[in-house]
Design a protein that fits this description.
35% helix, alpha/beta, Aspartate Aminotransferase, domain 2, 4 strands, 219 residues, binds pyridoxal-5'-phosphate, 4-stranded parallel β-sheet, globular
Length: 219
């Protein structure tokens, strides 16, 4: 009898393992530190603790957990649309941005498609690419910084997604908002530009891509 591995999708078996940030207690024990003195920047967790507003909302949500939640996040998308001067249809809510990136890959990637990202980019770009049999085009990052011109040059007629994180994880480098906007603007309309702003709170100014949304061919 064979094993379940023989039945599994090949890309699932060959995925690199995503190593998530380690818990504070584990790091503190390894280095002999007081856990209260450890602040984890690697996982972008809030050292100030959860917002009291978030805690109240979570408690209220528990009271109605016998019902399905609104999977479409109707009210949240309406509020976000108002805040960012967009429409609710411009928003997809995920269980973390990881989920949204996997959904993007699920929706748009086929075997033979290419996905462009930096050689030391966030590992999930590669995982999402491999999962759907697409080809990773990893652009070298001299000095651990994204080379936006080289990334643009790596785009071919087979490119479907270009991922860019600013600040990047794990290297921490950032790109100028104007350069990011220029890259996005220069891409063919059938290339999806995924700007990952997971660490945008560390920036004084982040790229605003909304001006590029006017009248796209792929609405
Ligand atoms: C650059 C980058 N993007 C996205 C994520 C995913 O974050 P989450 O799924 O928690 O939103 C991470 C998490 O480490 C990250 O480092």
């Amino acid at each position: 009898m064979g094993s379940y591995s023989d039945l599994a999708n090949r890309p699932v078996l060959t995925q690199p393992v995503y190593e998530a940030g380690r818990p504070i207690e584990v790091v503190a024990r390894e280095f002999g530190l007081d856990p209260a003195s450890v602040i984890k920047l690697a996982s972008n967790e809030n050292p100030l603790g959860p917002s009291p507003l978030g805690l109240t909302a979570a408690r209220q949500a528990l009271e109605v957990c016998h019902l399905y939640p609104d999977g479409g996040s109707t009210f949240l998308r309406e509020k976000l649309a108002k805040k960012w001067n967009l429409t609710p249809n411009n928003f997809v809510i995920g269980n973390g941005s990881n989920e949204v990136m996997i959904l993007l890959a699920q929706a748009f990637l086929r075997p033979g498609d290419e996905v462009v990202f930096g050689s030391q980019a966030f590992i999930v770009y590669k995982l999402a690419t491999m999962l759907f049999g697409a080809t990773a085009v990893e652009v070298p990052m001299p000095g651990f910084r994204h080379d936006l011109k080289a990334m643009r040059a790596a785009v071919t007629s087979r490119t479907r997604i270009l991922f860019l994180a600013s600040p990047n994880n794990p290297t921490g480098g950032t790109d100028e908002p104007a350069d990011i906007l220029a890259l996005a603007d220069s891409l063919p309309e059938d290339v999806i530009f995924c700007l990952d702003e997971a660490y945008a709170e560390y920036l004084e100014e982040s790229a605003d891509l909304r001006p590029l949304m006017a009248g796209p061919a792929y609405a």
